[in-house]
Amino acid sequence: xxxxFVAHLPFTAADLSxxxxxxxxxxxxxxxxxxxxxxxxxxxxxxxxVVRHRVFCDLPLPDRRRCARRVDHDGPCAPRPPR
Length: 83
Known about the structure:
The protein is mainly alpha-helical. Helices cover 17% and strands 5% of the residues. It has a two-stranded antiparallel ribbon with strand order 1-2.
């Protein structure tokens, strides 16, 4: 397996919630690529790039998968986001 890298892609959003939504949508849209770890996606303010805000919960589940719900979700963790 190769080394891990982070791609920094600046974008604009109305607020942190909208930025998380955008980043989550972007991550899910490329999650079919085995090289992408969508559960680890974070966002930061442009002037505070060392302060990262998680997008997905990503907590481990009993079956060794990870929670795919948003970081601030209500209810139990799940391997897929609710429809």
